[in-house]
Each structure stands twice: as C-alpha cells, then as structure tokens.
Amino acid sequence: xxxxxxxxxxxxxxxxxxxxxxxxxxxxxxxxxxxxxxxxxxxxxxxxxxxxxxxxxxxxxxxxxxxxxxxxxxxxxxxxxxxxxxxxxxxxxxxxxxxxxxxxxxxxxxxxxxxxxxxxxxxxxxxxxxxxxxxxxxxxxxxxxxxxxxxxxxxxxxxxxxxxxxxxxxxxxxxxxxxxxxxxxxx
Length: 187
Fold this sequence. Notes:
Layout: H1 2-12, H2 16-24, E1 27-31, E2 36-38, E3 46-61, E4 64-71, E5 76-77, H3 80-85, E6 92-105, H4 106-115, H5 117-143, H6 146-156, H7 165-172, H8 176-186
Antiparallel strand pairs: 1-6, 2-6, 3-4, 3-5, 3-6
C-alpha cells in the first residue's frame, strides 16, 4: 500500500493526509490469479488503483490475445475508452497473480473530483501519463525494430523475468519465437 500511497501523492501533488482521504474513498477488491476486473463487452464503470499483485490488460483479435499493458503496484488506471464513453469495453483486465485493487465507481469519482482538488489533479495526471505512454508505444511500433522495443521495455519496466514471455512478446508485437531470437542476440 506504501507504493500506491506514494503514487497518489506524486500524481495528486498532495500531502499524506489528502492521499489518505483519497484512499478512504476507494473500495478494496481482492482477486485471485485468473479472476477478472473487466471482461470485453462490459462497460468499465471504475477507476482502478493497484495496491498489490499484477493485472494484465489485453484484447482478443483473430483468436489471439494481445497484451496492451501490465499494471503493477502503485499504478492507477482504467479502460479510458469505455470509462469515458460508457461504451462496451474491448479490453479484459485479468489478475495474473493474487492482487489487491482499490476501485471507485465513475459516479463516485466524478463527485470526489468536484470536492477534492487533489483527486481532480490525480485523475488529470493519470490520463496525461496514459497518453504519453500511448504515444511512446505508437511511435515505437511504427519506427523501432523488435530489439529496440525489447530494450526499451527492459529499461523502463520490471516485467522481464517476472511475467510469462507470451505476455512480453505480445506487448512488443512479436511472436514468442521472435522474442527468443531477440533475447539470444542481445547476449
């Protein structure tokens, strides 16, 4: 929970007391590995705050799963498209290890944002960071070779060695066999 509180303080640009007030507004959800926070076709009605564990955000296409993100402790996220437009999600959010996720429903989040400048700042900054990450990923997919995407992932995330290679290869847009070659050539 310390990591999550630190991230709330960083994003919301607030003190510990304000962070505690935000945390008090959230509802805990414990997930065993393999359980879902969101299944494609559902409307995403919550913001998620990862206290512990890890969750994979992925979608299906042509009978394959594609990893869009892996959320780890301290991360604050939602399926923005579904959450903001109140439309059916194309994403699945699955616990890939036992996880504690704190949630807040959209209606409660909207109310809290009106009364808490710190929470309003937190929401704005999480959306800004999501757009920056999306921009980096789009540019990387359009201009980087697989080895460069792998090196960036290695430098920026703690995912390697922690999560299955099928999730890593899917995230950087290559097959598992291509990932094996990239890893072998890197040595």
